[in-house]
Amino acid sequence: MTNNAPCRKDLLCLINRVSFAVDDVKLFLDTHPCDANALAYFHEYSKLRNQALKEYAKYYGPLTIDTTMTSCTDRWNWINEPWPWQEGGC
Amino acid sequence: MQNYHQNNCGCRQTTDYGRYSSTQYVSRPQATPCCDREDSLDGMPLAMAYVPWQIWQRIYEAEKGFCRGTIFEELDKPFHGMGGCNR
Amino acid sequence: MWNYEKRLQYPVKITQTNPKIAQVIISQFGGPDGELAASMRYLSQRYTMPYREVIGTLTDIGTEEWVHGSYQ
């Protein structure tokens, strides 16, 4: 296919890091719902996360049910290996 | 007769309570202080738990936050053993 | 309800298995004061919680503790 596919491991690394940032700021926002700085941070990292998830799904298969649209056009590859507990899954 | 009294700081220093009968308890001033540690909560009301309100500050870069397990530098408190002493 | 993501929150690479450590980890997760029990309490207590901030916190922390189960 295309030659400029991003490295799978690097992309998954990025997804892990930005997703964790989203997880942590989400907890902060639960108790600080009007904090403008936290909201801005959330939007920035959420955007990065969604872009990275879409890109991952395009080249390597979906990680979420919402990115299956990018990936499973002629086959339901949601069920493809690796699953997280398998070799290469994380 | 000396009583060995294990106090909360576990320093196990002995204090001499002096002789006492079953009806009377006399304590003597202690020859050496039991615990010389400074208490940063000195003067605060006893038996109160507190959780100060967190504010948005000192946020780690995403890479560092991921490795430390928190994006908040103020919540980055690695365990160093009991009493912070690597025991 | 919950979404599933096909990844671990933090990568795991086990070079040498150790049944003793595994036993400790499982007891921490599944025991009476384990994370699974805590998660169930958080998720159950949401329904009678009068403050939306606390509902959010209980939901998100309860969810987070579930993730730890996936490491089992």
From TrEMBL, chain A:
Domain Protein CotJB: 10-86
Keywords, in A-Z order: Capsid protein, Virion
Top-rank lineage group of the source organism: Bacteria
Protein name as annotated: Spore coat protein CotJB
Species for this entry: Faecalimonas umbilicata
Lineage: Bacteria, Bacillati, Bacillota, Clostridia, Lachnospirales
TrEMBL record, chain B:
A UniProt-annotated Pfam family: CotJA
Protein name as it appears in the record: Spore coat associated protein JA (CotJA)
Organism: Faecalimonas umbilicata
Lineage: Bacteria, Bacillati, Bacillota, Clostridia, Lachnospirales
TrEMBL record, chain C:
Cofactor note: Binds 2 manganese ions per subunit. Binds 1 Ca(2+) ion per subunit.
InterPro entries, per database record: Ferritin-like, Ferritin-like_SF, Mn_catalase
Cofactor(s) needed for function: Mn(2+); Ca(2+)
Binding-site positions, Ca(2+): D60
GO molecular function: metal ion binding
Keywords in alphabetical order: Calcium, Manganese, Metal-binding
Gene3D superfamilies the record matches: 1.20.1260.10
Family: Belongs to the manganese catalase family.
Protein name per the record: Manganese containing catalase
